[in-house]
Amino acid sequence: MKIVVLVKEVPDPNALRLDPRTGQLQPGTPTVANEYDLYGMEAAVALREAGHEAEIVVATLGSGRDPVNRCLAMGADRAVAIDDSSLTDGDSLATSKVLAAFLKDEGFDLLFLGQESSDSATGDIGPRLAAMLDLPVVSNLIGCDFDGSKLTLKREIEDGHQTLEVTPPAILCALSGLPDPRSPSLKGIMASRKKQTDVKTGSDIGVDAAPESIVSWGDLFIEEQESQGTIVESEDVDEAVDQFVAFLEEKRLI
């Protein structure tokens, strides 16, 4: 069985640095692997640890190497980085077209990715890929078991949980209800340095030009907040108290 895990590099949600002059993220803003993608990676490794023979390939679109390096340290066998600056600035439709071209060439039995990313949070990459590749997709995944021929999947829905049976190939969108992603061990980190990372461009996967985007993003901004108040400026304490009490009575606070 071949499992592909898609992982995205995103700005660290706990360390966002916004330049108020430009409305853009400041250079040097820390980045991390998208959390939901790591839940998908953990699920892939868990399937193999359950006794199912599987090659795990982690892939990313962009120049960031930290996400794939972490996944290699978690147990992925090899990595692919689609590192082509002309392909990384599109919307989710353009991104899906690039990833679909790569996946058609790579091939897989199971594809894990996060339900959404912490930066754009569109949540539509998995369903778009399913439509482009004509494969079943299961979203909001919180449980995954495999008996060697079919998957028993649990997904979160509005009023509880739903259990489904799916036969590979399939696309699975992970949520945080799955087991927590493991922290890479020292042994895993050392082993990851010897694992292969292939770097591909658009021409390598058959995408000669950047797919056209249909959505454009506005500038980031910090919402302006205004506060109003009343200042009692009387130098006489008793008079100041009377003014303050009168204000509270006017506002029907006492």
Describe the protein in words.
The chain is of the alpha/beta class and 254 residues long. The chain has a single domain, classed as HUPs (Rossmann fold), CATH 3.40.50.620. The protein is built from 6 helices and 13 strands. The strands form 3 sheets. Strands 11-10-9-12-8-1-6-7-13 form a 9-stranded mixed beta sheet, sandwiched between helices. The chain has a two-stranded antiparallel sheet with strand order 2-5. Strands 3-4 form a two-stranded antiparallel sheet. β6, α2 and β7 form a beta-alpha-beta unit. α2 crosses α5 and α3 packs across α4. The longest helix is centred in the N-terminal third of the chain and has 15 residues. It is elongated. The model has no long low-confidence stretch (mean pLDDT 89).
Quick structural summary:
This protein has helices at residues 35-49, 66-74, 92-106, 125-133, 186-192, 237-250, and strands at residues 2-6, 9-11, 18-19, 24-25, 31-33, 55-61, 78-82, 110-114, 137-146, 151-157, 160-166, 170-174, 197-200. The chain is α/β, with parallel strands linked by helices and 254 residues long.
Order of helical and strand elements: EEEEEHEHEHEHEEEEHEH
Task: Tell me the number of helical segments per DSSP (H or I, 4 or more residues long).
Answer: 6
Span from first to last CA?
Answer: 71 Å
Give the tally of structural domains: 1
Query: How many β-strand runs?
Result: 13
Radius of gyration: 25 Å
